[in-house]
C-alpha cells in the first residue's frame, strides 16, 4: 500500500530511490557498539533530525548519550560558554557530536547574524569548552554546502570546519542532503503531495547528493576513527525533479502536478562535494574519504565584532576574509544598501 511515511529515514517513500543497499539504524548501532558501549557521548542538536537519530542509535549501542539542545528538558545554547561548562562538568562527556546548527539555506540569507552566531561562534565556544574539559573527540557535522559556498549558511559551516580543524582532537564530516531530515526538501514535497499539489521544484536540472538518515549516522560514527575533514561517497548527484516524481509515484496521489519556480538566493544548481582547491584520498578499510583542504587559522575577531554591532557590511567582509571563494547572494547585496550599523 502506498502511504506517506513519517520522516524517520527508514521505511519512507524514498526506499530504493538511491539504488543502493542502505542500512537500518539498528544495523548501524550493532556495527559500532564495540567502540561505543558505556561511552559518555554528548549530542548537540539532539532534538533535530540528525541529532535524534544519533541519540537513538547511541542508545541502541548501549552508549551513555547526553542530549544538548535548545528544545530539550534543560535548554542549552551552544553559544553560552557558562551553560556549556556546567553541562560538561556535570556529565563529563568523552565524545561530543556537534549536530546543532541553523541548517536552512534561506535562513542564512534573511537572518545572517543568527546563523553566523550559532554555526561559527557557537562552534568555537563548544570547541573551547570541550578542550578545557579534556574531551577525547569533538566531531562536527558539516555539509557539502560548505564546499565553495554560495549561501551564507554554507559559508558559516565552512568557518566551523576551519575552527574544528585548527583545534586538537577534532574531526569533521561533510555530509550530503539527508533524505527526510527537517532541513531537506522531502518533508516539503510530502506536505505538498498530501494537499494535492502542486509540488514545487526550483529548476528542472537542479541536482543534489543524497543520503539516508542511517547512512548519515554511520558516517558520523565512523568519522570518530579518522582524523581531519572527511566525506562519505553519496553516489552520483540526483535531480530534485526525479525525487519529486519518485515521491509522487509512491503516494496515493500519483497525478499530483509539478511546477517549476526558481533557484532561491544561496542555492546552487548542482552541489559539489569538494571546493576547487580541495582533493580527496581514500582510507582503506573505511567508507569515508579524507578531504585535503586549506586550513588557515581562523581569526574570528572581525566576525564577532560585526555580530555584536549588527553590522551587515562588516559581517560580509569578515565572512569573505575567512572564506575567500564566498560571494554574497543578490538578496544580501540588496540588504547592504539598507544596512545601518547599530
Automatic annotation (TrEMBL):
<feature type="domain" description="Polysaccharide biosynthesis protein CapD-like">
    <location>
        <begin position="76"/>
        <end position="281"/>
    </location>
</feature>
<dbReference type="InterPro" id="IPR036291">
    <property type="entry name" value="NAD(P)-bd_dom_sf"/>
</dbReference>
<dbReference type="Pfam" id="PF02719">
    <property type="entry name" value="Polysacc_synt_2"/>
</dbReference>
<comment type="similarity">
    <text>Belongs to the polysaccharide synthase family.</text>
</comment>
<dbReference type="InterPro" id="IPR003869">
    <property type="entry name" value="Polysac_CapD-like"/>
</dbReference>
<protein>
    <recommendedName>
        <fullName>Polysaccharide biosynthesis protein CapD-like domain-containing protein</fullName>
    </recommendedName>
</protein>
<dbReference type="InterPro" id="IPR051203">
    <property type="entry name" value="Polysaccharide_Synthase-Rel"/>
</dbReference>
